[in-house]
Amino acid sequence: MRKIALTFGLLRAAPALAEPPAPDYASAANWSQAASALPAGATPAAKKPKVDVFFIHPTTYRGETELNQDVSDATANQWADASSIARQASAFTGCCRVFAPRYRQASIPALRGTPEQRDAAYALAYSDIERAFDVFLTHTKGRPFLLAGHSQGGLHVATLLEKRIDGTPLQKRLVAAYAIGFNLAEGDFGRTYKSLKPCATRTDTGC
Questions:
Q1: Alpha helices in 150-203 (DSSP H)
Q2: CA dist 31 → 77, 92, 111, 158, 159 (Å)
């Protein structure tokens, strides 16, 4: 009986497979406004910014069973705003308009699940990023832009660069991309990224 109970307990603790509803990026509720909260002494927000930023926050979801966050989870959204977007994305507010989508981020339980669960969770998260990016492009109307992300967000930036930017007309609009907390190797350039190159100096653009 005890063995059965222990087995049942393990099954109950396994990551849930239910897929949260896809966010509608036509709704302002699915975009964070926390980047406007500037710290004391920061450069004031630009009055007429000429560049836009697409910012992807890191893993902030604290759920213990789900593979992906439901973007209607107000508590999770508040923590993403406070822990990342207000502290990281706000670094760009002095120069740019910041667009920070809420997305069905892969959770810590997804990392602890099977390889199939992990890959599915990250693929679902990235699918939101691509859809949000398409909406971002409709609002930027040909303006130059930056991509920035941290940790899981850095991974999604790297994937977005590969699938949507490298070797496309959008590459001419890219000011720079920051995939912070995610490893990009020198060998990725020329293989994964056929046209994009790493920045060599602090004033380089399109890299």
A1: 152-160
A2: 10, 16, 25, 21, 20
Tokens of 187: 């060998």
Amino acid at site 163: K
Task: Tell me the torsion sign for CA atoms 76, 77, 82, 88.
Answer: positive
> Phi first, then psi: what are they for 108, rounded to 5°?
-60, -45
Give 110's pLDDT tier (boundaries 50, 70, 90). Answer: very high
Residue 1 has pLDDT above 80, yes or no: no
pLDDT, tens digit, 9 for 90 and up, residues 111-133: 899 999 999 999 999 999 999 99
d(CA 24, CA 121): 19
Q: Are the C-beta atoms of residues 125 and 80 closer than 8 Å to each other?
A: no
C-alpha triplet 102, 28, 138: angle, nearest 5°: 90
